[in-house]
């Protein structure tokens, strides 16, 4: 091997030495050229052969004699490979764009259910959030359903499967078999001199016993302990003694604000609290009927010990103490008057959340829950009053997403989650009834956004199977926001509350709105126009039915 020091290129036999640009020229002579003659060489031994080490900047084992000496064979192979990859990429991109445009890449929904799980023991060691892994949609499909025409096909399929079928009410004996302890604690008749449903219960503890020692709300939540510390201090002052026995006044709510989430229930709750005749549970949203009585503290944590009904009744002790003070007053005892104080409860999950039924009640043959929350409430309180606050389900869903999503919130991410949820819902309604899908725990936990909460009419019709229509007041958040005084008067009249002074009314109606959207969520702006159009199409048949049931076209939400 020989090397030209001046140009540092690898030279082969002498006949190619002329290729060295430093050695060319009309007067070139191999014998006179100091490079060719071998002068001033510095020896370097490589592979036991002498080399010039200053000249070795690059060692090539091959020399390409083709392409006129400008390119080597390795460069040629590399260029060919790159060219082939570019052509292949262009072909694939062209196919994907053409297929997406014509809907060719939209694979039918991969989320098709088999049988619903009916055995609670199958998920004893899993949290409710883990059940998403049972039915997971194909991720590759989601990126191809962004366009409106493709998702419209999914919505059309869902719409074609909608049937509003009246459910059969279970009889009272069936309910007793499911919740025997609850029926043993709550009586069938209440005190006649109290507008609110209350009764006296014998207290069998002694003065050294902590009456709230086992209350699950106090045990599992630090923020409630202050409330229970106060209740402990005043508990003994409110025991009623009769014939050497002690009794405590127990109460259930007179009315329930049952839904829906992100529809203004908190604002309604805060304003009603200001009425002198209204009291609420010590905790705004106990979620006892829907979650705590099944042992659900947080959905992601799975099941814990079930909260007994006594723990729920403890939450109304503060209000019960005030009702008892009125009942023991001379006005009530001597003049035959009654207490007009009423208690409310405002868990926004009460209307719609029946997800836990599948783990505790025998599954029905069609995948529908055999018992619903309203069945039990009606069994104890057939005269209860129910308040529902609704809003445009499209805007409700976006507000719900902004409130509960923890990270990476954006209009684009919301769109992706809506598309995925629609696919999941479609997969269910293809095989099961609308009610079975709406109340299916597995599906509801798998959907990235809570589409089902906006299907107001499905839930309302089920409540109307057990309660009369005049026991339910349905309001719109849009009306409440534009004319708060009018909606609050409707609520006062519905609850048969006494008149207010101008000062009291001003305090209730002019207070700032509660639980408004957070500044960081407002900065994200509205949802994408395409997403809004998709959701309008999805909710339209449900809104139409709702407007028919309520005889009010405002519930079509055409102008929002």
Automatic annotation (TrEMBL):
Q: Which InterPro entries match?
A: CS_Sulfotransferase, P-loop_NTPase, Sulfotransferase_dom
The question of whether Lipid biosynthesis is a record keyword is answered with: no
Which Pfam families does this UniProt record tie to the protein?
A: Sulfotransfer_1
* Keyword match Membrane: yes
What's one GO MF term for it? N-acetylgalactosamine 4-sulfate 6-O-sulfotransferase activity
Q: Which residues form a coiled coil?
A: none
Tell me the protein family, please: Belongs to the sulfotransferase 1 family.
Protein name (Swiss-Prot/TrEMBL): Sulfotransferase
- Which taxonomic lineage does the organism of this UniProt entry have? Eukaryota, Metazoa, Chordata, Craniata, Vertebrata
């Amino acid at each position: 091997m020989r090397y030209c020091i001046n140009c540092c290129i690898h030279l082969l036999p002498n006949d190619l030495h002329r290729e060295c640009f430093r050695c060319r020229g009309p007067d070139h002579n191999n014998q006179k050229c100091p490079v060719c003659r071998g002068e001033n060489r510095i020896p370097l031994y490589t592979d036991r052969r002498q080399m010039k080490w200053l000249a070795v900047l690059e060692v090539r084992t091959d020399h390409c004699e083709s392409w006129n000496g400008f390119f080597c064979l390795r460069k040629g192979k590399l260029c060919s490979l790159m060219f082939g990859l570019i052509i292949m990429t262009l072909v694939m991109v062209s196919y994907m764009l053409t297929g997406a445009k014509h809907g060719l890449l939209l694979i039918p929904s991969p989320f098709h259910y088999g049988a619903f799980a009916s055995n609670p023991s199958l998920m004893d060691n899993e949290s409710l959030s883990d059940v998403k892994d049972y039915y997971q949609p194909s991720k590759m499909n989601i990126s191809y359903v962004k366009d409106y025409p493709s998702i419209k096909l999914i919505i059309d399929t869902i719409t074609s499967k909608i049937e509003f079928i009246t459910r059969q009410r279970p009889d009272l004996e069936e309910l007793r078999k499911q919740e025997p302890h609850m029926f043993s604690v709550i009586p069938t008749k209440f005190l006649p001199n109290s507008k609110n449903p209350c009764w006296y219960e014998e207290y069998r503890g002694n003065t050294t016993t902590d009456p709230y020692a086992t209350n699950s709300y106090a045990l599992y939540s630090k923020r409630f302990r202050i409330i229970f510390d106060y209740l402990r201090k005043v508990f003994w002052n409110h025991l009623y003694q009769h014939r050497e026995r002690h009794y405590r006044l127990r109460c259930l709510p007179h009315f329930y604000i049952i839904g829906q989430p992100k529809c203004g229930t908190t604002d309604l709750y805060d304003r009603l609290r200001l009425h002198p005749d209204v009291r609420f549970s010590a905790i705004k949203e106990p979620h006892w009927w829907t979650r705590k009585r099944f042992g659900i503290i947080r959905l992601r944590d799975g099941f814990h010990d079930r909260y007994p009904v006594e723990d729920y009744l403890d939450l109304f002790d503060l209000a019960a103490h005030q009702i008892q003070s009125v009942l023991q007053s001379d006005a009530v005892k001597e003049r035959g008057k009654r207490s007009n104080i009423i208690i409310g409860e405002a868990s926004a999950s009460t209307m719609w959340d029946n997800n836990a039924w599948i783990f505790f009640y025998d599954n029905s043959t069609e995948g529908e829950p055999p018992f619903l929350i309203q069945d039990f409430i009606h069994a104890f309180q057939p005269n209860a009053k129910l308040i529902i606050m609704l809003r445009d389900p499209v805007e409700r869903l976006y507000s719900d997403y902004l409130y509960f999503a923890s990270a990476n919130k954006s209009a684009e991410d919301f769109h992706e989650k809506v598309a995925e949820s629609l696919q999941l819902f479609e997969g269910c309604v293809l095989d099961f009834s609308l009610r079975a899908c709406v109340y299916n725990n597995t599906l509801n936990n798998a959907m990235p956004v809570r589409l089902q909460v906006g299907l107001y009419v499905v839930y309302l019709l089920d409540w109307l199977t057990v309660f009369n229509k005049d026991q339910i007041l349905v309001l719109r958040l849009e009306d409440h926001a534009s004319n708060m005084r009018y909606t609050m008067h409707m609520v006062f009249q519905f609850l048969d509350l006494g008149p207010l002074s101008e000062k009291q009314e001003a305090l209730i109606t002019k207070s700032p709105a509660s639980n408004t959207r957070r500044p960081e969520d407002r900065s994200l702006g509205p949802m994408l126009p395409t997403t809004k159009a998709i959701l309008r199409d999805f909710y339209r048949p449900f809104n139409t039915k709702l407007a028919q049931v309520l005889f009010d076209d405002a519930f079509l939400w055409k102008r929002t």
